[in-house]
Amino acid sequence: MRTRTPRLAAAALAALVLAGCSDGGDAADLGPRTAPGTVTVGSSTSTASRIEALIYANALRAAGTPVETKLGLGQGEDAAVAAVERGELTVAPALTGALWERYRPGAAQPSKAAEEESENPRAQWDAQFVALSAVLPEGLGLGDPTLALDQPMLFAPKAAPSATLRGCEGLSGAVAVPAGSPSDLRARYGCPTGPIVPVADEAAAARAVAEGRAALAQLGTLSPAAKDLAQVADPDGVVPSRAVVPLVRRDGLTVAQTKRLSAIAGELTTADLAEMIAEVDAGRRTPEEATGDWAAEHPMK
Q1: Cβ distance 224 to 155 under 8 Å?
Q2: Boundaries of each ABC-type glycine betaine transport system substrate-binding domain copy (predicted)?
Q3: What confidence category does residue 34 fall into, taking pLDDT thresholds of 50, 70 and 90?
Q4: 177-185 long-range CB contacts below 8 Å, 24 or more apart?
Q5: Strand order of the sheet with strand 196-199?
Q6: Closest to 244 measured CA to CA, from 87, 103, 92, 124
Q7: CA 61 distance to own-chain centroid
Q8: What are the chain's domains?
Q9: CB 190 within 8 A of CB 214
Q10: pTM (2 decimals)?
């Protein structure tokens, strides 16, 4: 079983203190000490959100918590977040970077100094998580962010020389960019690239690389189209993380239940989530089957 690094654990502790201070309550408290009853876990309509919600629900049930699920509440990543804000849900999966954009629109996302990031790639995650916890609306809190990222990134052929955003090595040549994907690549990645090749979707972007019409493709980290390509490294956290994280109502969970959700943090990876999404979207498994198998392979202590 993978464990969280001491640095991220320290960041989580600091975030809990900030969350506690936001509403004047006990700085170590994420909710009532007595059992609050049934916990309601929900999701948006996307396959990723459904899977993430079921993983959190399964973890709580395994610890003896009564759980009700409300899946598919609406389209868009904000649908389940809004339901938590309204008090319709106790827990919902969210994305760290998306939450920052929701609560601090237009503000630059926090990061460590570049020299510190180079020494520790997780420094950017730590800064983002602590700062985000401090700006959440009163009554809301976070469990630990997982290792699973859901965001557009650059991908190159696996056989090509390794490419990285540090020093912009290996990033020359045209970039296939799907419709609706960020197009200001220099602003996003901090590196000059070749010309943009607009394509219809992520599958078309991956084909453009395979056929030699582009050197790179911009794809979602959870996209099936990315499976035959290699993600360009981002060791310094140039691109703000959109890590899967449980957004919770602090009055609806005990400290023990919140810790149970945080136990998922070191277990759920981008590769795990991408594989489950592919299985479900292909009709080979239901979300319940996929997450049940994942839980069996990743027992929580």
Answers
A1: no
A2: 38-111, 221-296
A3: very low
A4: 177/205, 177/217, 177/218, 178/202, 178/204, 178/205, 178/218, 178/219, 181/152, 181/218, 182/152, 182/218, 185/154, 185/218
A5: 196-199, 175-178, 216-220, 152-157, 229-231
A6: 92
A7: 22
A8: 39-111+122-149+242-297 (3.40.190.10), 152-231 (3.40.190.10)
A9: no
A10: 0.84
